[in-house]
Write a structure and sequence with these properties.
This protein is mainly alpha-helical. Helix content is 69%, strand content 0%. The N and C termini lie far apart (32 Å).
Length: 61
């Protein structure tokens, strides 16, 4: 599935949540989508926990 189709599906889900559930439902769907995205990246091996929890002395650019 292409990224455009996935983006369209996510946009439609957020639109339905915003229309039928209000702004609170829109934020809830967006937050759960972001959590699912990060979890999927962890499962695929694209992210590691150290990417989020880095010390201040370790500043990679």
């Amino acid at each position: 599935m292409s990224m455009a189709v996935i983006g369209m599906a996510v946009g439609m889900a957020l639109g339905f949540a915003g229309y039928f559930g209000g702004f609170g439902a829109f934020l809830l769907v967006a937050a759960l989508g972001a959590i699912g995205f990060v979890a999927g990246r962890f499962l695929e091996g694209d992210l590691e926990p150290g990417d989020f929890f880095r010390t201040r002395g370790d500043r990679r650019r």
